[in-house]
Design goal:
Layout (H helix, E strand, L loop, with lengths): L1 H16 L4 H12 L4 H7 L7 H37 L18 H15 L3 E3 L4 E3 H4 L24 E3 L4 H10 L6 E10 L10 E12 L6 H16 L5 E8 L2 E10 L16 E10 L1 H6 L7 E9 H9 L12 H4 L2 H6 L1
Parallel strand pairs: 1-4
Antiparallel strand pairs: 2-3, 4-5, 5-9, 6-7, 7-8, 8-9
Helix pairs in contact: 1-4, 2-4, 5-10
Length: 347
Amino acid sequence: MKEKVLEIQKKFDEQIKAVKSLKELNDLKVEYMGKKSPVAQLTSMMREVEDKKTFGMILNELRTHISDDLEILKQKLEEEELNKKLESEKIDITLPSNKIKKGSIHPLNRTIEEIEDIFISMGYEVVEGPELETDEFCFERLNLPQGHPARDMQDSFYITDKYLLRTQTSSVQARTMLKYGGEKPIRMICVGKTYRREDDATHSHQFNQVEGLVIDKKENHVSLSDLKGTLEVFMKKMLGENTKLRFRPSYFPFTEPSYEVDVTCFKCKGKGCNLCKETGWIELLGSGIVHPNVLKMNGYDPEKYSGFAFGTGIDRLAMFKYGITDMRYLYQNDIRFLKQFDRRDID
């Protein structure tokens, strides 16, 4: 048996010298250490040998010799393969790197940040509220009871009979009035997403609004002139100092009197063009004096308090500010579109 073991070892030593790759090494390992290998056959003959102890020692020495030589050669071949790979894939770090394509701050976020900065500088508080709203706060507390015809103007996304995705951020105004308990003055804006079933070049089923609310005691004379002055500062800061405003009587259930506010066309500067339909004006805001019913339903005594409210779509404001022709560009996440705006703000 000893001669058999020595013969296997000698044959292995000759074969391992010819191994040049990890694949050949693995094949040799299977040949000598696998289930049908000479070592496995000798192990199965253990029961037939009289001097099992001596035979076992010789067999273990053979197994150890083969395993050690295989492991040593494996480490050597792996190191050689790694060095070849490093040599072939080396990088010249002195070469200029590839520029990573990047966009810039989204025009909607730019517009929102600018709006918030303007109103904070005028002493307004920025308030947030839920996007999933109840019918009560979205309509009823804003003087739009069940069956009111003005509800037809807002094609809403109802989740249940009670809950819907808010169609306007005015619901936050009602929540703020209730929070203040009808006793504290209010000067706030709410910026956030709103939802209606609309989708074309100038409308989207999801869009952003900013709405403002000012309420104070009547003795402090919060009036339409304050509303006009506030909106003039707002629009001139956003669209340029030469921007002019025009107030037209209108109807909103939550204000009385109510006004649509037009601004001079950003394209033709009021001269008339195809964008403004040759009028020189573009409708941008809704505004008015807070309706007494709204004050009363939300805890304020209309005999003691008055105020004004206004609102506009941030998406359209961003379109006017940056000359964007289609609202859908704002939601397509195209880096070619987004990367323009760093340069535009610098210009």
